[in-house]
Specification:
Elements (H helix, E strand, L loop, with lengths): L6 H44 L5 H15 L2 H7 L5 H10 L7 H14 L6 H15 L3 H7 L1 H22 L4 H28 L10 H13 L3 H8 L5 H10 L7 H16 L9 H15 L2 H7 L1 H23 L9 H9 L1
């Protein structure tokens, strides 16, 4: 007697799988996004601390550049009149009106994890929940009074703890592919934004290129990607702008470089979509293969001749298209990030 599932049962199983895949993917992306937002804020504070004679205009430019890099400048200007240390920290860390703030991302990651608690380990759930409780107990005023570097360092460590627990306790199943795909897709996008802040927003005047300010800024960019030590081990010489950009774009061994992240995206994408042949069938797989091919064949000279900002924008659009197609074809659900209750509580506070 055949025990094959009936069509209705198969459809239900597919829906359940797509719901789990959806939650795992967004849980991973939101945790990675929270960490990278903390990195951007931390490195901007470090850069300002490195220079004593920063003018008020330069200070405003540095803080505004962070909001510009996230693509949320219109939302920020809707709720805040000026960009300074307090308003930008509030907007990017705690403001639930900003769906990409650290608190909003962690809340969304927790909601996705809660929906699939039976699919993830207890350690994964506990680490997300602890991070959420930690953030709810903090405020912008407390961050600046207690020391912002410690706060943002805590966010990074919590993200690393979650990723380490995930790697140690989650089975290497289909769910693992969605977790890794989401993580590296988000990380690749954030690396382009880190580079774009420096080259497009904080670019010094022609007379400053290669000078102390320019070098310090590139140090800050490398530090924001935890790449400063790796860069120095690789080049064993002073920091040069084009070398720093080359390392963050083209390194095939550093885990936060664009090339490394896109290679991981391509690998997990092919597994998720069943793209086992040499000729990709889906639009996402073709876009991923083209992007990886560019990163394997182009040089930093090619990129700079095209314009680093223009190159990074093209990469961002390609990554967005890849992610969107995977979501539409395998998950069928929007990201779980309904924040109405939390927003209400925040407004009351």
């Amino acid at each position: 007697m055949s025990h094959a599932p009936q069509p209705a049962a198969r459809a239900q199983a597919t829906t359940m799988l797509s719901r789990v895949a959806h939650s795992l993917y967004w849980m991973s992306r939101f945790i990675e996004r929270a960490e990278n937002t903390a990195r951007l804020l931390e490195v901007n504070i470090q850069f300002i601390d490195d220079f004593e004679n920063v003018t008020a205009t330069q200070l405003d430019q540095h803080w505004q550049s962070l909001v510009l890099s996230t693509g949320d400048i219109e939302l920020f200007e809707k709720h805040y009149e000026v960009a300074d240390s307090r308003t930008v920290t509030e907007f990017l860390s705690f403001d639930l009106r900003n769906p990409s703030s650290i608190l909003a991302c962690v809340y969304a990651a927790r909601e996705n994890a809660r929906m699939i608690r039976d699919q993830i380990s207890a350690e994964m759930w506990e680490s997300i929940n602890e991070l959420h409780l930690f953030l709810k107990s903090r405020s912008t005023a407390a961050v600046w009074s207690d020391g912002p570097n410690e706060f943002f360092g805590s966010i990074k460590r919590a993200s690393h703890l979650f990723q380490g627990l995930t790697a140690s306790t989650y089975s290497r199943s289909e769910g693992w592919e969605f977790i890794e795909f989401g993580k590296f897709l988000e990380r690749a996008d954030q690396t382009t934004r880190i580079l774009d802040v420096k080259y497009h927003i904080l670019l010094p005047s022609a007379t400053d290129v290669g000078g102390a300010v320019d070098t310090a800024q590139w140090q800050a960019v490398l530090r924001s990607a935890s790449a400063l030590e790796a860069y120095r081990r690789y080049y064993v010489r002073e920091i040069l702008p084009w070398k720093a950009a080359e390392f963050l774009v083209f390194s095939d061994s550093f885990p936060r470089s664009l090339h490394f992240c896109v290679a991981q995206v391509d690998d997990y994408l092919r597994r998720i979509l069943g793209e086992s042949g040499t000729r990709p069938r889906t639009g996402a797989a073709r876009a991923s293969r083209r992007l990886l091919g560019d990163l394997q064949t182009l040089t930093i000279t090619d990129v700079l001749n095209q314009g680093l900002h223009e190159f990074l924008l093209e990469v961002q659009l390609a990554l967005e298209a890849i992610g969107q197609e995977v979501v539409e074809t395998t998950m069928f659900y929007p990201a779980e990030s309904s924040l109405s209750d939390q927003q209400q509580q925040q407004q009351q506070s």
